[in-house]
Amino acid sequence: MVDITVRPMVAADADRVLAIYQAGLDAGNASFEITAPTWSAFDTARLSAHRFVAVDRDGGVLGWIAVSPTSTRAVYAGVVEHSVYVDPAAQGRGIARLLLDALIASTEAAGIWTIQSGIFPENAASLTLHQRAGFRVVGVRERVGRHHGRWRDVVLLERRSRVIA
């Protein structure tokens, strides 16, 4: 991993971030979404302090991670939902774990006590990644939505901070 670094996401990363997002959506097991949003919609929906990209030594974006608030209610200010995507050509190199570790450090430093995510049960690699990073399965939302004409379950995972009481 010497040739890969994690840094904050900036607007200049938009094209690569959205292309990686679309590639993940096209694979079919990443999200109910089928089309990546515009940069404006992406930027508005995610907390700017907790968005990161993994880049190679030439500065090429290989993956990204970002969070959205789960609620506008003050009581849930310390709870976020995250997404992590890696370019298909760069998968299997530990990039998602680097991004997740950076996100955990960032959110804990900001007083966020819970990171959650919903993952399709067929996405075994993502489930394994999250469990190894300290996420636990909270439950399964059965047949919660239709995706490409069929009902899909979603595994709900969360990671509670060990440093925020």
From TrEMBL:
Keywords: Acyltransferase, Transferase. It comes from Micromonospora arborensis. The keyword Transferase applies. PANTHER family: N-ACETYLTRANSFERASE (PTHR43072), UPF0039 PROTEIN C11D3.02C (PTHR43072:SF23). It comes from the Bacteria. One of its GO terms (molecular function) is acyltransferase activity, transferring groups other than amino-acyl groups. Residues 4-158 form the N-acetyltransferase domain. SUPFAM superfamilies: Acyl-CoA N-acyltransferases (Nat). This is N-acetyltransferase.
